[in-house]
Amino acid sequence: MEKATAVQYVYDLLIKINHQLEQHQQRESMFILQEIHEHFDGIATLNFTDVHVIDCIGRHEPINVTALADRIELSKGTVSKVSTKLIKEGWIRRAQLNDNKKEIYFRLTPLGKKLFLVHERLHVKVQHQLIQFLSRYSSEELEVMKRLLSDGIGFLEAAEWQDKSLESKDM
């Protein structure tokens, strides 16, 4: 196959896998939310952002608004809004550290810890499926995939950086 044809074929496959990933993530998100709602007998009015905030707090508690916003790539305002909702619903609580009474940190409540574990169990299941899928490839093939994916991430990050620098010039 000629290189230009192979490049076009790979490009077409990347577009197709991107579309498939979007559909898969949407189905997975709906499945996880459905599982959570069933597991918590309908008391959960959570969306996926709420679940990700709870997950991040569970992994890094105690954690403040700034660190939480950085880790899940949301604005501090959005994190404040979501955390207020989660506190009202009893999923998380505010806390202060002994050596820093000024800063507010978040911790999971017992209900939040239960949700964190349910979410973690579902993610482990998905991770296991993906690892099984990747296990069919040789070490050499996996090295090529690692390079392709790493280079692709670098390409997309550079494009995002360029977009942001162009946006700031327009302002």
Order of strands, widest sheet: 1-3-2
> Which class do the helix and strand fractions yield?
mainly alpha
Mean pLDDT: 88
How many individual helices? 6
Low-confidence stretches: none
In what range is the share of β-strand residues? 5-15%
Q: Rounded to an integer, what's the Rg over CA atoms?
A: 20 Å
Distance between the termini: 46 Å
Net shape:
globular
Order of helices and strands: HHEHHEEHH
Largest sheet: 3 strands, antiparallel
Question: In which range does the helix fraction lie?
Answer: over 70%
Number of strands: 3
Provide structural commentary.
- By secondary structure, the chain is mainly alpha-helical.
- The chain is built from 6 helices and 3 strands.
- The chain has a 3-stranded antiparallel beta sheet with strand order 1-3-2.
- Helix 2 crosses helix 4, helix 2 packs across helix 5 and helix 3 crosses helix 4.
- The longest helix has 37 residues.
- The chain is globular, with a radius of gyration of 20 Å.
Short description:
With 171 residues, this protein is mainly alpha-helical. The protein has 6 helices and 3 strands; from the N terminus they run ααβααββαα.
